[in-house]
């Protein structure tokens, strides 16, 4: 319902895009957490503003009145005195279980001097925040713009911050196509790390990534994100878990090698990305995924050196749950190791890794109906020399 409010109410969308931690409590209240204020000792505190609303139908809401409720003690000015002209008084009532962390302690009443009425929720909240939080913002250089997404009983977002991009583009219906997906990313090296990065920002329900290796300096040249020198020598699992766990819920990166014995690790997985550079390892992973009827995309890169320059291709191959065994028999992905493949020598090719990951994730999103697909291709090859993509589909076989 919250995404509907954003889509149908410009003032709610403005609040979210401004960065307020806005949430919905049942059918009666908007709750805005992370509101800074000063107590009587000028210590920094954080409270919440609660505003009643009236449902006027077709996804639209309006204010009930000019008052607010406040979860917190009495806000004070920089002189240590209670902020004047807030009116109201002590009051309390319980919100729903989803907002049990918000304990209402008082109400405030402050009308605009010129009109006596707030235009909308955005104007109302901005006015009260300037009064309540102004002293704290000045003294401690803080603000309430945390962009925090607060989960409630009617919220299914996996993100810890509001996805304002989706609401602004009005593609919530398309984003919802991923809500039941549990994705496995097997291997978070060069291409796998970019696949993980893209998926972290996709509203899938859960992501499970696996990699046994350590994170060395050469990995930093073909992986997204900023290098923290403390990461060097740690496991890739620890590095990427730490990088992304503050962004979303439902992410686990495990230090583990996936083979045919790991069926329990993939229980409940709805789709997988295979991002390994060893043919023998790929073969065992294929065995497992096919036995579990998990559809997957395998990525690969083949490079050679001609006339002193690197040339080659990028590959993304889709194996559906229905015909994965048939696809495997086509030998589109190498299942043995090639000692002559220069990629294995850790050439720094981050842009190719990222492009390879793009091909794979775009294909996955086409399968889910997020992106338009003119023809259902199962095998994509990007040629580095001519910058062209070769595709194979069922129709191209006929």
Write the layout of secondary structure elements.
Layout: H1 2-8, H2 10-18, E1 21-25, E2 29-38, E3 44-57, E4 60-63, E5 67-71, E6 89-90, E7 106-109, H3 121-132, H4 134-140, H5 164-169, H6 172-175, E8 182-186, H7 190-200, E9 206-210, H8 217-220, H9 236-244, E10 251-254, E11 271-274, H10 279-291, E12 296-306, E13 309-319, H11 324-329, H12 350-367, E14 377-383, E15 388-393, H13 394-397
Parallel strand pairs: 8-9, 8-11, 9-10, 11-12
Antiparallel strand pairs: 1-2, 2-3, 3-4, 3-5, 5-7, 6-7, 12-13, 13-14, 14-15
Helix pairs in contact: 1-2, 2-3, 7-12
Structure description:
The chain has 398 residues and is of the alpha+beta class. The protein folds into 2 domains: 2-168, no CATH class; 172-397, NAD(P)-binding Rossmann-like Domain (Rossmann fold, 3-Layer(aba) Sandwich). The chain has 13 helices and 15 strands. The protein has helices spanning 2-8, 10-18, 121-132, 134-140, 164-169, 172-175, 190-200, 217-220, 236-244, 279-291, 324-329, 350-367, 394-397; strands at 21-25, 29-38, 44-57, 60-63, 67-71, 89-90, 106-109, 182-186, 206-210, 251-254, 271-274, 296-306, 309-319, 377-383, 388-393. Helix 10 links the parallel strand 11 and strand 12. The longest helix has 18 residues, at 350-367.
């Amino acid at each position: 319902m919250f995404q509907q409010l954003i889509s149908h109410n410009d003032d709610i969308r403005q609040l979210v895009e401004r960065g307020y931690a806005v949430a919905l409590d049942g059918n009666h209240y908007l709750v805005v957490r992370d509101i800074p204020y000063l107590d009587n000792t000028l210590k920094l505190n954080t409270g919440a503003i609660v505003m009643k609303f009236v449902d006027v139908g077709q996804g639209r809401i309006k204010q009930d009145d000019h008052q607010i409720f406040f979860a917190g003690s009495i806000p004070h000015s920089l002189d240590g005195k209670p902020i004047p002209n807030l009116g109201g008084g002590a009051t309390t009532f319980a919100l729903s279980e989803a907002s049990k962390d918000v304990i209402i302690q008082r109400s405030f009443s402050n009308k605009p001097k010129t009109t006596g009425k707030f235009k909308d929720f955005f104007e109302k909240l901005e006015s009260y925040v300037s009064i309540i939080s102004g002293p704290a913002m000045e003294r401690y250089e803080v603000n309430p713009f945390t962009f925090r997404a607060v989960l409630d009983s009617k919220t299914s977002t996996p993100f810890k911050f509001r996805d304002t991009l989706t609401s602004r583009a009005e593609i919530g219906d398309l984003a919802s196509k991923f809500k039941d997906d549990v994705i496995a990313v097997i291997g978070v090296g060069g291409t796998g790390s970019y696949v993980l990065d893209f998926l972290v920002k996709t509203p899938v329900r859960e992501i499970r990534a696996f990699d046994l290796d350590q994170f060395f300096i050469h990995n930093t040249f073909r992986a997204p994100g900023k290098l923290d020198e403390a990461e060097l020598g740690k496991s890739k699992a620890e590095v990427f878990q730490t990088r992304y766990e503050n962004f979303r819920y439902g992410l686990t990166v495990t230090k583990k090698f996936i083979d045919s014995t790991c069926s329990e690790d993939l229980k409940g997985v709805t789709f997988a990305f295979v991002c390994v550079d060893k043919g023998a390892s790929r073969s065992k992973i294929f065995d497992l995924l096919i036995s579990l009827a998990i559809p997957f995309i395998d990525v690969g890169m083949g490079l050679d050196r001609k006339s002193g320059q690197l040339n080659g291709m990028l590959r993304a191959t889709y194996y559906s749950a229905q015909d994965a065994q048939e696809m495997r028999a086509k030998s589109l992905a190498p299942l043995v190791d090639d000692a002559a493949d220069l990629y294995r020598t850790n050439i720094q090719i981050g842009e190719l890794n990222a492009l390879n990951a793009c091909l794979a994730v775009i294909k996955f999103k086409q399968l889910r109906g997020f992106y338009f697909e003119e023809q259902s291709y199962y095998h994509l090859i990007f040629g580095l020399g001519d910058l062209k993509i070769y595709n194979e589909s069922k129709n191209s076989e006929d």
